[in-house]
């Protein structure tokens, strides 16, 4: 039998965002309780091309399938007419090891699972009194974080800060196509929002700790390799609550790692996102909360399962 290969158009038509959100929620909870297998990720860096690539695998105990995923970001690609993100997901039968399908998604499944995880934890910890949402970053993931959060709650004013005002304006136009009003804003204003989402490939903090308002929630999703860093270590000292998608991984690759190395927090200062999603009301705080997401392979398996079930039955 020929191995089926599905392209992005087929995948997009098959995907139900509500099913993705539910699968990501359940998998984050399963991961908290040790019901997943997630080996350490592999990373490749291509300094001359300003690119990086990740290889992640994952299995949810009891599931029909497991996955191995390659996702890459080459940040100069738009200048030559190519998308920054590339990749594919290989799906294997967990009972026989046989390959079931290749999802030639161009990295979009990674984008969706990251956006879903970010949206879920942001919605859980932002509370009901959100007056503004700020996003630092203007790429695909910045757009997806806001668009998927809007699937879970009505958004107030969205403020966007990018490397240039033109890039920020471009993201605002893309968000408008989702029906989400947004405007470019200076960094201090965006960083002072009730909710702040950082979605960059930065290697140094993109905001200052003192710019973050008391009681704000921050979701940081860009630090997925050891050299990347979006949040200043001093911000973790101010936090009343720190949550991570994977404790071990965040101590190696996330913004939490930089804070621990700087001595601003202990290496046991975080709780898992799964615990928050089980009972969000129990974890709401009047202080600053931080969610540090590095991306776990079990989420790739969860989203791939949604797609493959829709495509193959």
Please tell me about this protein's structure:
- With 313 residues, the chain is of the alpha/beta class.
- The chain has two domains: 5-109 and 298-312, ornithine cyclodeaminase, domain 1 (2-Layer Sandwich), CATH 3.30.1780; 119-295, Rossmann fold, CATH 3.40.50.720.
- 36% of the residues lie in helices and 25% in strands.
- It is built from eleven helices and 15 strands.
- The strands form two sheets. It has an eight-stranded parallel sheet. Strands 1, 2, 3, 4, 5, 6 and 7 form a seven-stranded mixed sheet that branches.
- Helix 4 (140-149) links the parallel strand 8 (132-136) and strand 9 (157-161).
- Helix 2 packs antiparallel against helix 11, helix 3 (108-126) packs across helix 4 (140-149) and helix 3 packs across helix 11.
In short:
The protein has 313 residues and is of the alpha/beta class.
In what range is the share of β-strand residues? Answer: 25-35%
The mean pLDDT is 96
CATH class of the largest domain: Alpha Beta
Number of strands: 15
| CATH fold group of the largest domain | Rossmann fold
Pattern of helices and strands: EHHEEEEEEHEHEHEHEEHEHHEHEH
Helix proportion of residues, in percent?
25-40%
Q: How far apart are the termini?
A: 17 Å
CATH architecture of the largest domain: 3-Layer(aba) Sandwich
Class derived from helix and strand content: alpha/beta
Q: Shape from CA axes?
A: globular
- Widest sheet: strand ordering: 10-9-8-11-12-15-13-14
The number of helical elements comes to 11
Low-confidence stretches: none
Largest sheet: 8 strands, parallel
